[in-house]
TrEMBL record:
The lineage of its organism: Bacteria, Bacillati, Bacillota, Erysipelotrichia, Erysipelotrichales. The chain crosses the membrane at residues 42-62, 68-86, 127-147, 153-172. It comes from the Bacteria. It holds the Pfam family DUF3267. It comes from Intestinibaculum porci. This is DUF3267 domain-containing protein. InterPro entries: DUF3267. Keywords: Membrane, Transmembrane, Transmembrane helix.
Length: 200
């Protein structure tokens, strides 16, 4: 298997990660690397796209005259950006140094805007950082759509609720990680889709 060619930024992040990893090991931390399979992260947006089509079909059946399909592209782009900004805000609140412990970047190969941690934060902070987009972009618009009988909020909320299911999956995986250690920190893997637990 050929090794992936890293960009200068990725190489710098990898070097930073290796320095943190070595420092934590020196201080007596145990490390556990969790890699998320690509199919686990891609299947949810595909389901969301299917659900958007179903939502559009229902709107047509109900004779709602607004062309929702015109909003699909901007909704996807805005949703992805808001998702990562919310995650970054939650991570920054759980971090010692705020936004300086984060890296916002564009992954052109996958056409993804991402927010990654470059310094470890607490297990709960990492978990809640992954839950925020699911709650605020999915659940809240659904509740607003139901309360105000607004089809656009409802459709957007359902779409984002499904699109952010991978975040919900990470939340439960991180919270389910049990350790007898007094301290558990988490950091994003700099190159692969996944994260690393540090226990002490």
């Amino acid at each position: 298997m050929a090794q992936q060619q890293l960009s200068p930024r990725q190489a710098q992040r990898l070097q930073n990660f290796e320095d943190i990893f070595a420092d934590r090991r020196e201080k007596g931390f145990l490390a556990k690397v969790i890699i998320v399979r690509l199919k686990d992260t891609i299947i949810m947006p595909l389901i969301a796209l299917l659900l958007w089509g179903i939502t559009y079909g229902v709107m047509q059946y109900l004779h709602v005259d607004f062309p929702y399909w015109l909003l699909l592209g901007p909704t996807l782009i805005l949703g992805v950006i808001l998702r990562e900004l919310l995650r970054g805000l939650a991570y920054a609140m759980a971090s010692r140094h705020g936004f300086s412990d984060l890296c916002f970047h564009m992954t052109w190969r996958r056409l993804l805007f991402k927010c990654d941690l470059v310094m470890p934060i607490s297990q709960k902070g990492y978990a809640w950082g992954n839950l925020c987009p699911w709650l605020l972009l999915g659940l809240v618009p659904i509740l607003l759509g139901v309360f105000y009988k607004n089809h656009l909020f409802l459709a957007y909320g359902i779409f984002m609720l499904i699109a952010c299911l991978s975040d919900l999956l990470v939340f439960f995986k991180v919270m389910r990680f049990k350790s007898s250690a007094a301290r558990v920190d988490v950091i994003d893997h700099p190159v692969r889709s996944g994260y690393v637990f540090f226990e002490k």
